């Protein structure tokens, strides 16, 4: 928890980031009011003051946030590492009761370390495979039992579980496409539908992890980008469908943190599978481009020196933005922890894949 405490260390910085724009606007309006009053335009100054006061009041009403209580249950999927693990720790540190969905299949030391660390903080851990109907049903029963036993209210379902396979579209197998669609799209829908009756009854909130890739697809993750675009379309329609029942649906775009999660742990295996399924014509066409591409990106999937060392994300903007998605009384449709930039020229440098060279026979 040391790194999480460091995130909270500078409250002033977080407060400034949240209110800097409003303070700058207020300062500008104050200067204008003073100018009009000084030059004799008292009526203009008075009207500007009234409008400004009304606008400021509406702004702060819209930015009101709920308070977290121990009776609030927050359910988070995909808590093995990275964002899910970090948000579970974050919500628990704020005083909520947290139920974390974790894939316990296989012997992965980092997963075991994450489970132990979560439980040490008082977080309830439950095995969850969102692609498996039986697993989702068992998870739903655990949520209901926990709420009844502890007299809890479901504050939010945080759909964080997701997978990504890196590689150009022609290389990825049908199994890779099915895997990403089943987890990122169908799995997210499956767990949400399972918990929807409870969410409706409690007036809970649905938070879905989206990605910049949904609107700005990156080369090498075309299928992953397609799944995120699909989930964004679903979120948009769902927001209207369940809004009339008092349920808020929020899209959260956390930004890049690939190196701090397990999302690329199996990338080397994926490249091996791609190569095995390539035809001779495809292998000949791509030549050493595929080899260089796979070697470069496989570095991201190499285990750390200490696989048991599971850490929380250290970017404070992620937590500050997530708090808005979770606690704003009047939530926005989308929350982004990083600003949106014009990316056409920056994407190749951002992705950093090897350059393409035409094979010369």
Automatic annotation (TrEMBL):
Keywords: Oxidoreductase. One of its GO terms (biological process) is steroid metabolic process. It comes from the Eukaryota. The keyword Amino-acid biosynthesis does not apply. Pfam families: adh_short (PF00106). PANTHER family: D-BETA-HYDROXYBUTYRATE DEHYDROGENASE, MITOCHONDRIAL, SHORT-CHAIN DEHYDROGENASE/REDUCTASE FAMILY 9C. This is Estradiol 17-beta-dehydrogenase 2. It comes from Camponotus floridanus.
């Amino acid at each position: 928890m040391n790194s999480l405490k460091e995130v909270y260390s500078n409250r002033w910085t977080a407060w400034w980031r949240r209110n800097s724009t409003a303070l700058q606007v207020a300062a500008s309006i104050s200067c204008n009011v003073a100018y009009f009053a000084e030059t004799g335009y008292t009526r203009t100054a008075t009207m500007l003051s009234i409008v400004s006061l009304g606008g400021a009041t509406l702004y702060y009403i819209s930015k009101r946030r709920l308070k977290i209580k121990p009776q609030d249950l927050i359910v988070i999927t995909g808590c093995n590492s990275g964002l899910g693990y970090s948000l579970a720790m974050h919500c628990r540190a704020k005083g909520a009761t947290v139920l974390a969905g974790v894939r316990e299949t296989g012997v992965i030391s980092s997963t075991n370390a994450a489970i132990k660390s979560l439980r040490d903080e008082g977080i309830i851990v439950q095995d969850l495979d969102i692609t498996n109907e039986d697993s989702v049903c068992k998870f739903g029963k655990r949520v209901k039992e926990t709420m009844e036993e502890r007299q809890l209210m479901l504050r939010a379902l945080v759909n964080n579980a997701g997978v990504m396979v890196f590689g150009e579209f022609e290389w990825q197998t049908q199994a890779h496409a099915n895997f990403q669609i089943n987890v990122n799209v169908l799995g997210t829908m499956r767990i949400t539908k399972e918990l929807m009756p409870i969410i409706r009854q409690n007036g809970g909130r649905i938070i879905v992890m989206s990605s910049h890739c949904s609107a700005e697809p990156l080369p090498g993750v075309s299928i992953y980008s397609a799944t995120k675009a699909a989930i964004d379309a679903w979120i948009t329609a769902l927001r209207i469908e369940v809004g009339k029942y008092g349920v808020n649906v929020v899209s959260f775009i956390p930004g890049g943190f690939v190196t701090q999660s397990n999302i690329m742990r199996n990338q080397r295996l994926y490249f091996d599978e791609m190569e095995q399924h390539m035809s001779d014509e495809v292998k000949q066409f791509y030549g050493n481009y595929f080899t260089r591409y796979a070697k470069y990106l496989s570095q991201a999937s190499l285990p750390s020196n200490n696989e048991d060392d599971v850490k929380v994300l250290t970017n404070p903007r992620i937590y500050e933005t997530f708090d808005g998605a979770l606690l704003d009384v009047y939530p926005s449709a989308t929350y982004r922890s990083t600003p949106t930039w014009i990316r056409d020229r920056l994407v190749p440098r951002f992705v950093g894949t090897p350059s393409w060279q035409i094979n010369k026979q």
